[in-house]
Specification:
Blueprint lengths: L3 E8 L8 H14 L6 E6 L3 E8 L2 H9 L11 H12 L4 H36 L6 E7 L7 H16 L5 H12 L7 H15 L1 E6 L24 H7 L5 H9 L4 E3 L7 H11 L17 E3 L16 E3 L3 H14 L10 E7 L2 E8 L7 E3 L2 E14 L6 E13 L1 H10 L2 E8 L4 E11 L4 E10 L2
Parallel strand pairs: 1-2, 1-4, 4-5, 5-6
Antiparallel strand pairs: 2-3, 7-8, 9-10, 10-14, 11-12, 12-13, 12-15, 15-16
Length: 462
């Protein structure tokens, strides 16, 4: 056994507004019926990760934090409205109009879904990484509807189904090819890489995900008396139902299975995931091993655990990706840049000012965060500091600033002086940007794995 902690993350990027009251009620009922023995944190996922309540076992603080949760975003792009819209158009317009409308509406749906999935995956990867320094097993209970791994394919299927019902004169292969050419470019850069990033960070941080779909129990079954067609009178209702069901369960199941957690889907009891995570946090085995060889970088190394005890189900992390120390350090810095709010650390301070067209960034790192090792007659500590500048008028306008790789190779006496000062000072200088308001993100990472980030707004005067 080891120390354990529990995080409740509410994914507002996929949360239907009408599900929020049921989610908060389930959390309140759970902590009220059995006050948590495990320190619990409440987190909101929007465009950024927001810690609504830091770790506590105080039930009243947890209650108050649930009242501070931001409002849910509009529900995830739904296939049913698209299906119904195209079906209606089918009755009054030629099939080519159905295709063109499907392409235009599909582009909006896929673009918005990709945007929300990117926010959520970055936040979850950052959250797992940010708690990697804590000992013991960590459980994250994620309330989310998940995200489709192939939303473009679903849009193409729906448009093709409606066009097929409208006419027999269209070449369906040509229709699908046209849709694929128009919508294929909107596929996320690499869904597999996004999931791999989350799972890899979770594996190394000893994090397990317990995923709960707040939509509850649903069914795509169609009653006998309903086995007609949609409002346009052309597409069979059973096909309509099967094509418009939620498709985010693969995301939730993969996240839970590959991190040793559990997925709770199609259930109206939204407390069960939190109950299970609390029980698992109180009793588990912590097993580790050291590979005999590192293997090729980036390759997946599977892990298998077996037991001779009968009637036992094993839940554990099934593997990890081999990475060099440099690759992992770069990935850590990139992750902290994307979700700086997850990496706030006491004692990590940043101040920026413009002096004679030079942007001066002063960084203070607590000396206690550095891993100091003896090397011969000296003591050594190594860390990096990186910074990015982003205009507040456009999130894509990101400029990487010159960073620093710092090596402190000092006598024990000088290193003791740094310990006594409780801080290490680093300055980054770069040409000042044009006048305006900017968001400055600064990330520091020690060779021992400690990482911190600071996000601040700076104003460059004329």
């Amino acid at each position: 056994w080891g120390r354990e902690s529990l995080m409740v993350a509410v994914d507002l990027n996929s949360m239907p507004p009408d599900a929020m009251p049921r989610v908060t009620a389930a959390i309140l009922d759970t902590i009220g019926a059995a006050p948590p023995k495990t320190p619990t944190m409440i987190i909101a996922l929007t465009e950024q990760l927001e810690v609504v309540q830091p770790f506590t076992t105080d039930v009243e603080l947890l209650r108050q934090s649930l009242g501070r949760l931001p409002s849910a975003a509009a529900s995830q792009p739904d296939m049913a409205p698209l299906f119904s819209r195209l079906d209606r158009i089918c009755g009054i317009a030629p099939p080519s109009d159905v295709v063109n409308t499907g392409i235009a509406a599909g582009q909006d749906i896929v673009t918005e879904a990709n945007r929300r999935m990117l926010f959520t995956t970055n936040a979850l990867a950052g959250l797992a990484q940010s708690i990697s320094g804590q000992s013991g097993r960590k459980h994250i209970v994620l309330y989310s509807e998940g995200y489709s791994f192939n939303l473009v394919g679903r849009v193409i299927d729906i448009v093709t189904a409606v066009v097929t019902a409208c006419t027999t004169e269209q070449d369906m292969l040509r229709v699908r090819r046209s849709l694929g050419q128009q919508l294929g470019m909107l596929m996320p850069p690499d869904v597999t890489s996004s999931m791999r990033l989350i799972i890899d960070r979770a594996t190394r941080a000893q994090v397990s995900f317990y995923t709960v779909d707040p939509g509850g129990l649903t069914s795509v079954a169609v009653l006998p008396q309903q086995k007609g067609s949609t409002r346009g009178g052309r597409v069979p209702l059973p096909k309509f139902a099967s094509m418009t069901e939620r498709s985010g369960h693969d995301f939730l199941e993969t996240l839970a299975r590959d991190t040793g957690g559990r997925a709770f889907l199609d259930r109206n009891d939204l407390k069960i995931g939190l109950d299970q995570a609390q029980r698992d946090a109180e009793s588990y085995y912590l097993v580790g091993y050291e590979p005999l060889e590192t293997g090729k970088k980036g390759t997946y190394r599977a892990v298998r655990i077996v037991t001779t005890r009968p009637d036992v189900t094993l839940r554990y992390r099934h593997g990890y990706y081999a990475m060099s120390d440099r690759e992992r350090a770069n990935a850590d810095v990139e992750g902290a840049m994307q979700t700086p709010s997850a990496f706030r650390r006491d004692g990590f301070l940043v101040a920026a000012t413009t002096v004679e067209r030079t942007l001066q960034i002063d960084v203070r790192i607590p000396s206690s965060a550095l891993r100091i090792r003896r090397t011969g007659g000296t003591e050594r500590a190594t860390f990096v500091v990186h910074a990015e500048l982003r205009s507040t008028t456009g999130k894509r306008n990101v400029k990487a600033l010159p960073g620093k790789d710092v090596v402190l190779d000092l006598s024990p006496e000088r290193m003791n002086a740094i310990r006594a000062s409780d801080k290490v000072a680093v300055r980054l200088d770069s040409p000042a940007p044009s006048p305006g308001t900017y968001l400055l993100t600064v990330v520091a990472r020690d060779s021992g794995g400690w990482i911190a980030a600071n996000l601040s707004e700076i104003v460059v005067a004329r």
